Amino acid sequence: MIRTILLTADQQRSVGGVEQIQRWRDSSTDYIWLDIESAATDETRELLESMDCNTLAISDSFRLRHPPKIEPFEHSTFILFRGISKIQGTLDFSHQQIGIWVGERFLITYHQESSISVSHMWESELENSMIASPGTLALKLLHYACGRYLDTMLEFEDRLADLEDGLLGDHSEEGMKELVGHRSRLRRLRRTFSYHKEIANEILNLPDQILPFIDQESDHLRRDVYDRSERVYSLCQMYYEICGDLVEGHISLSSHKLNQTMKILTIISALFIPLTFVAGIYGMNFAFMPELGWRYAYFVVIAFMVALTITLLILFRRIKWL
């Protein structure tokens, strides 16, 4: 699918397809937003090259997996962003590459599947009375995409609190497995968010070199994009560390419970070992054992065993084993 929005100097706009590109070329004041949703075909490459898009940037946008980046060229700036295709579960995102070319009079977005962020901005701009300039529109697109990540991360905070409480309950093993899975996903997301943060940082601090076509009044929007990117990254980092702390805490609690159990078993063993020793001696089948012929031998041995047990209990109590 290829669609375009053409905005004239007197704020007249029209929605169409590739037929509007020639009309835009014939004018020196019109703006155009070209949105391409298509597989990586030769026809798509030819169309992008006809819009003066860099060949290497086109190849990067065609790849299913490529690190997000921002790269300025002579007539445009290329932004490769990783957006959300769909959310399958908690922190389980399906990502897709979104290639964005921003020029003085054009904005080009390329994605191989339907993009929620692009579709949202498309509808939003059609509803507005005035369509933003290409640079501002690109920033709004990044701002909205970062907002979707941010909303999902904030929703995860409540789930993380439930998992923390559940570790002390009867379903700690299930919570432990879920935490390990979330920690692994957060590690991968942290890498993506670090790239997004670098892109936003360059846009904020180097606007003249990175986005020379952007409006001078875009300082607040550039700051918002950076703030959202930085917050998403910091939340991801914090949640990753919290998950790690909860996993380590659960392991420590399990080890403590195991140590308590082993302590009790050790005390029981310590009590019965001397008793077993005494019983073993008098259970030997020797012909000459003087105590066997004594009338009170049985009662003395039983009393000795009881006294020995009480003595060990007192000793364990004093050394705080009990």
Quick summary of this structure?
The protein is of the alpha+beta class. It has helices at residues 19-26, 42-50, 55-62, 116-127, 134-166, 172-205, 207-210, 219-281, 297-318, and strands at 2-7, 13-16, 31-37, 69-72, 76-89, 92-103, 106-111.
Topology overview:
Blueprint: E1 2-7, E2 13-16, H1 19-26, E3 31-37, H2 42-50, H3 55-62, E4 69-72, E5 76-89, E6 92-103, E7 106-111, H4 116-127, H5 134-166, H6 172-205, H7 207-210, H8 219-281, H9 297-318
Parallel strand pairs: 3-7
Antiparallel strand pairs: 1-2, 1-3, 4-5, 5-6, 6-7
What does this 3D model show about the protein?
With 322 residues, this protein is α+β, with helices and mostly antiparallel strands. The chain is built from nine helices and seven strands, in the order ββαβααββββαααααα. The chain has helices at 19-26, 42-50, 55-62, 116-127, 134-166, 172-205, 207-210, 219-281, 297-318; strands at residues 2-7, 13-16, 31-37, 69-72, 76-89, 92-103, 106-111. The protein has a seven-stranded mixed β-sheet with strand order 2-1-3-7-6-5-4, sandwiched between helices. A hairpin with a 3-residue loop joins β4 and β5. It is rod-shaped and about 125 Å long. The chain starts with a strand and ends with a helix. The relative contact order is 0.08.
